[in-house]
Amino acid sequence: MGMGDDIKHNAEDLKGKAKEAYGKATDDKSTEAEGHAEQAAAKTKKAGDDIKDAVTDS
Known about the structure:
This protein is mainly alpha-helical.
């Protein structure tokens, strides 16, 4: 995985955390759920890149 991908996925995760926190603070369940989904998507992308790295390093 390239350093750029790592930074991109971490930024997506942080964006999701911020959106989730905003949703909680404003009692907006939809925004909170969107934030949670964005975090999950970022974590999935990170895991996929980790697997790809493990296969290519072998």
